[in-house]
Every structure is written in C-alpha cells, then in structure tokens.
Amino acid sequence: MASAGGERLSSTEFKKKREIEEARKNGTLPPEQDADGNLINPHNPEYISKRPWYLGDSGPSLKHQTLQNQSHLLSIHEADELYLRGRRVADKKTGPPPKWKKGACKNCGATSHKTTECVERPRKVGAWKTNKDIQSDEVLVDVRSQKFGKLAFDAKRDQWLGYDPKEHAKTVERYEKIEDARKKKRMEEVNRKLQRAAEKKKRREKEGGDAGTGTGSNSDSDSDYESDVASEDDEFRDRDGVVFSERVARQGGVGGAQMKTTVRNLRIREDTAKYLRNLNPNSAYYDPKTRSMRDNPNPELNPEDSVYAGDNMVRFTGDAQKLASMQSFAWEAHAKGSDINPVANPSQIEYMKKQYEEKKILLQNEKKQKILDKYGAQQNHAAPPKELLLAQTESYVEYSRDGRVVKGIERAKAKSKYMEDVYESNHTSVWGSWFDRSEMGWGYACCHSKVRTSYCTGEEGKLALEASKSQMAERQMLSASTQVNESSSLSEKDGAGIRKRSEMYGENIAPDLDEKKLKKALKKAAKEKKQGELDDRKRKYNSMDNSDVNAEDMEAYKLLKTRADDPMAKLLGSDVLLDE
User: Fold this and answer.
1) Residue 310's domain spans which residues?
2) Tens-place pLDDT, residues 527-578
C-alpha cells in the first residue's frame, strides 16, 4: 500500500494508520486539522481526502478539492505585472556566477525543478558540465496555468503575454556569431585565392617571365583583393534582397519576375481604410480579425454626404428586410403548427405571406366597417367635399404689406408627388412647369415635351412642336374639305341614279377575258383539283414554277370555288333545282 507521497508503508505502519482512522471515526481521537486550522471530517472517503501524487504531500488538507482564485479574471495588465514580479525577483540576485548543484536540473541548472520537468530548450551540452548560464532557482510565474485566476478574454488571446524582451538579445547574439563566422570563412577563402595568385606569380618569375608583366599581375591581384573585400557585404545583401523580392512576388498573386519591381509599392492604394476614416479612439470599433466596422465612424455627418456609414448599413439594403420578414413569418407559422421551411421552399413562404397579408387587410377593413355600421359614424368619417376644403375657416391669419405672415399660422403649401428641384434627362425645368391647353396635358417648360421620361431638346423641340401642330391643323382642314366634296358628289350621284345595268354589276370596271385562255385555265384548275383529291402525296413539288396569276386564272378559281355559306352550293352540277 502506497501513501499519498508515494512511499511504501509496512504492514505494521499500515495497521497503525487504520487504527488511528477508526479511533477518529469513533470520536476517541480528535480529527485532523489542515494548515489553516480547519477540521477535516474523518468520515470523508479516501478518494476525497487523499491528495493526488502529482500535487505533492503537504500534510492533511482538502485544498486540492477547491478551485483557487477562479472567480477573479486577470486582465492583460495584471498578468504582465505577475510576470514582471517574477523577473524582478530573479534579477535581484547579485554576486559571483552560480555553479551547478547536485540534484538540480542538468539542462538549465535550476534547483526548483528536475531535468524531466525542464521547459527550456535542450542544450547541446548541459549546465551540469559547462557551469554556464545557470538559471535562477525562483520559479517564473506561469499565468496560463490559472493558478492565480482565470485569464480575461484579451489576456487569453495576447500572443506576447509573458514575453521577455531580454530573451531576444540571446537570439541577436547567436545571429551575430553566425555572421562573424561567415565573414571569417569568407576572408579565409579570399586569403586562399591571394596565396594561389602569389604562388602563380613566383612560378612565372622562376620560369623567366617578364618583370613588367609580373608587376601588372601583382597590381591585378591587389585590385582583386580590394574588390573582394569591398563587395563582401553587398554580395550577401543583394542575395537576401533577391530572395525577399521573389518571396513577395509569389505572395502578390501574379508571381514572376515582373513583380519584383513592385515590392516597395505593394500597399499603395487609392481607397481609404475603414479604421482611418475617424481617428478618434472613442469612435466606431474596428475588428481587425474580421476586418469589419459595424457602426458608423462619422455619425455626425449627413447620411447623403458620408461615403461610408458602417457595415450594418449594408445589412439593411436590398432584399435583407424582406428576407428577415419572411423568416420571422416562417418561425411564427412553424410555432402554430405549419410545416414550412424558408430555405427549402422560399416561393411557398412568399406566397403564403402574401395571402396572409391580404386576408389581414380584408379582416381589418371588415372589422372597421362593422364598427362604423354599429355606431353610425360614416358621416363624420367621410372627408368633406373638395369645394369646402379651400373655403373660409375660423383660423385667423394676418398678413403684412409685403405678404409675410404677421399673426397666425401660415397655410402649408401643397407638396407635389414628384421630387422638387430635380432636373432629369438634361432638362432645365422640372416636370409640370408647362401646361398645354390645346391637348390639356402637363410637360416641361424648357422644350414643351409632354413625355415624362423624354430627353430635353430645347428650343428646337418647341419649334418642332409648333410645326407639327400647324401640319395637323392643315391636315384637319384638308380632310374636312374632302369629306364635304365626297358628300356632295354622293348626293349628286344618288340624285342622278344608275343609268346603265353594267354600272350596277360592275361590268364597266371588269377586265377583258380571253375565251381560249379562260377554258385552258378551267381545265388546268380542274385537273389539279382532281389530282389533289386522288392522292395528295403524289402531287408534284412545283416550287420552281414561277408563273404569275393572270386574270383568266383568277376567274377560273372563282368559278370553281365552292362556298359553304352559299345556299345554292349543294345544287351545283345537278339539273334539278327543286324537289319533285
């Protein structure tokens, strides 16, 4: 049997422990007390009173069953203060550099935790061998463990919470060492090249080369050394710049070498960001995560003059309100038992809502009419006649000589249903500024146009309208004169009467027919009719026939045509006119 601290108990110790527990339960021994002097109930089960092994053994207590400081929310400022307090305690230690102690962490050298519990970056050579950079024994505050209370919303999402800027100095130092090593290696390569050049020079001199040539090669080697040393930093700087420009070019969306020149001008834009429209910190809140600003940053401006009025303004434009009303109608209908879904069948919801509104208006009108019929208030409810609206009233109004109201209330001007002082389609006057008395219609005074959506034509439109009116007047006069002449001629003809029989039957205007051609046309028409009656499918396709219809063909067609409404049509072809 193991204890709370993890130590193994012998049988006698375990037996003695059980006897003490039984005595406390029976009341012969006083119960245990914790560090604060509170009594611990001996009848508590073991799984409640026993302290977990990972919390350590600090005597009898029930604190492990309670949440410590959970009701308090730590803000960003309070959490930073806790971290800074721990760092100040660690920085106060002065004196000679500490050495590694037995039992301390082999990685960082701190005695407050073991090697397996160390949270620092594993070192290549531990502190127990190097005795360098021994960390302080004080445990740095870990606010995220919630030992000091729950973190607030902002503190929990602060990515720099607990960050020590001094730790960045180690990173800078490490990169400086890498840079020094790189420069040292570069200098070694340059020296190696110079040694090779000197060896080549000596070899040429031994072979009996020219002295002037040797001097020139020496000067060339010196210039090479100076150029290599001078361009050392530029080489690496240019190399890093090329990599950076390529990386930004790929992120730009287009990619390629054409994007390298636009790295510096990547954020130059014509529009203004939302959070720059009002720099007052108490204005509308901008959420950088969603890039949204719901409220109006400039509520004091006129809505017609403001360019941006917040994201909430867009939510109430278009069909948003109509969709919201349909959704609320669907919820109310579903609550009353109707199985409808606005997402699955929106047309059904719209139709049902339309029917519901029509029935609602109808019921309201019926209810109103019932109340009027019951209490008899039709005569008071009806509006007075128009001739009495502008009659004399009891309201006293006194005017001055220039027409201003001195006493009383001025009569309100009647507002037009059209927008005032709005010039449309290049017109210089409003609609209704001119009235055409000849046609009794309203129009524009600038061009005398009576079409509401017409484009302004100016003075030319007025001239064209006058010309059209004069032409219409002339046509009306001509038509009137022709009607008078026709009526007089008809009266003369009626008085004279029809003198000849041919005039009555129209023989005087009938065309002259050739007897031979007429017989030929009759035979042709009868033959075509017979072929069509026998077999319509065997009839030839005469689309290429380009013969015109003459007077004989037309006469043959009229002679052979049968009319269903003719009472004598059934007797054609028979000699008997009447039944015997």
Assistant:
1) 271-317
2) 877 776 666 666 565 545 556 778 888 888 888 776 666 777 666 656 555 5
Q: 30 lies in a domain?
A: yes
Same-domain pairing of 203 and 224: yes
Q: Report the predicted TM-score, pTM, of the whole model to 2 decimal places.
A: 0.25
Kindly state the tokens that stand for 75: 């803000």
The residue to which tokens 């059934």 are assigned: 570
Domain boundary among 65, 90, 108: 65
Check pLDDT > 50 for residue 4: no
Strand-pair partners of 287:
292
pLDDT digits (tens, 9 = 90+) for 95-135: 677 788 888 899 988 887 888 888 888 999 999 989 888 88
Q: Give residue 420's pLDDT band: very low, low, confident or very high (50, 70, 90).
A: confident
- Beta-sheet strands, E only, within 70-161: 73-74, 150-151
Same domain, 309 and 327: no
Domain's final residue, options 446, 465, 485: 485
Residue 285 has which token pair? 């809140």
Element (H, E) at 398: strand 398-399
DSSP-derived letter for residue 419 is: P
Tell me: do 330 and 288 sit in the same domain.
Answer: no
Residue 535 lies inside a defined structural domain of this protein: no
Higher pLDDT, 517 or 230: 517
Looking at the structure, tell me whether residues 310 and 329 fall in a common domain: no
Return the higher-pLDDT residue of 112 and 230: 112
For the record, the structure tokens of 120 come out as 């620092």
Place of tokens 């180690």: 170
Assess whether 300 and 329 both reside in one domain.
no
Question: 82 near 141, Cβ under 8 Å?
Answer: yes
**CA of residue 11 relative to chain centroid, distance:** 75
Asked if residue 124 belongs to a domain, the reply is no
pLDDT digits (tens, 9 = 90+) for 468-488: 888 888 888 887 777 766 666
The Cα 167–Cα 140 span in angstroms is 14
Quick one: which H or E segment has residue 531? Answer: helix 515-534
- Total number of domains in the chain: 5
The per-residue DSSP string of 425-489 comes to TT-SS-TTSEEETTTTEEE-TTT----TTPPP-THHHHHHHHHHHHHHHHHHHHHHHHHHHHHHH
What pLDDT is attached to residue 176?
A: 94
Q: Does residue 109 belong to any structural domain of this protein?
A: no
